[in-house]
């Protein structure tokens, strides 16, 4: 227990710039889905989200919940089953189709006129809408604003040079009284090039602190066997709750 506590309380990694110029193209992300290189997908859902779900929802009904870079996250079904409206955006059409298939949900698809080449996939129930397009094009589709944002595997996946642009888009999509739950990862970025990319506590505050109250709800050691291939021996997940200032 002493070792774990020391890890969780350790200082931030000083070399935050080492991944600054790292770039993955949208095509490379699509290839990850085609080649099933999706170690980031959690079949049982996110355990910290389960733990803090009541804190996140505050007992409110019929919320609009946004999933940036949603993949085939099973948590989208959790929210829709509770009567909330879910909107996601994902560049991989394969990921979106797998979500509906694995959750046994019938759906329709149509072109998005405002974004050439983009599609929207809607569950037959009408409360899950997944946009297949570049996240940065999404505001052109007039998707309105959200009560909740669940950001897991999104900020840590966008190219580090795009983070300010990303946070600006996210904050532009929030309604008054919003709650924004963010999961980021902390590991030695000199050992692993990413993604997922290392996001420091200072970076989180720089991106969101001018608009949001920021609370770190929990830090958890999430090291798994697969992380050994990254050349690291520890990886910490930090869960933040943002609320309106």
UniProtKB/TrEMBL annotation:
Main localization, broad class: cytoplasm
GO molecular function terms listed in the Swiss-Prot or TrEMBL record: S-adenosyl-L-methionine binding; thiopurine S-methyltransferase activity
Translocase among keywords: no
Known EC number: 2.1.1.67
Catalytic function, reaction form: S-adenosyl-L-methionine + a thiopurine = S-adenosyl-L-homocysteine + a thiopurine S-methylether
GO terms for cellular component: cytoplasm
Superkingdom of the source species: Eukaryota
GO process annotations (BP): methylation; xenobiotic metabolic process
Protein localization: Cytoplasm
Keywords assigned: Cytoplasm, Methyltransferase, S-adenosyl-L-methionine, Transferase
Complex formation: Monomer.
PANTHER family xrefs: THIOPURINE S-METHYLTRANSFERASE
Family according to the record: Belongs to the class I-like SAM-binding methyltransferase superfamily. TPMT family.
Name used for this protein in its record: Thiopurine S-methyltransferase
